[in-house]
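Target chain:
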Amino acid sequence: MTVTAKTRLSRVPTLLVAGALGFTLTAELGLAQQTTPAPPPPAPAPTEAPPAVVQQPAPPGYVIGPDDVLSIVFWREQDMSGEVVVRPDGMISLPLINDIQAAGLTPEQLRQQVEAAAARFVQDPTATVVVRQINSRKVFITGQVRTPGPYSLTSKTTVLQLIAMAGGLLEFADKGDIVVMRTQEGQTESFEFDYDDVRRGRDLEQNIELLPGDTVIVP
């Protein structure tokens, strides 16, 4: 079939119109892509909460003493809060409150003292006394053990347990003549301890629970 010149000419406007429409659609699509706002960046992951203050369980009858480490935390009054070490004179120092007696008090008694002192500066203060580390309750072991010296008494400890903490007895220790020295209210008393008897399960009552200030002597 022969295509005439007139037919070819009639197709040219149609092609031009189709091309123009295609260019317009492409341009509009590109403009829409450019003007579409980018999605917001992902929100940062939440930071971890600060670690909780670790509290060392206080043994029954515990009273605060020199070298103990305490945290005094005031609710809504962080400027007055802080970690303190009980000084040799039994005092601690806190912002605004300054020096306050701590040694010889239970944590609850110290809390009451701190709140009473803080009431001069803030209304209805609420404080918490946290025992971080107990260093004041010490027992001592000397003589024929591998590591003589003072040991912190942070929980119930017997004579046999203290000997184990000190690394055990040396070869030439007199196992049957161990003595525990204790001073209370100005009176000193001694308790005998036979290592072999206790190790064999005999006379277990001599394996007494130690008190702060006791000294175990291993000849």
In short: The CA atoms of residues 137 and 212 lie 5 Å apart.
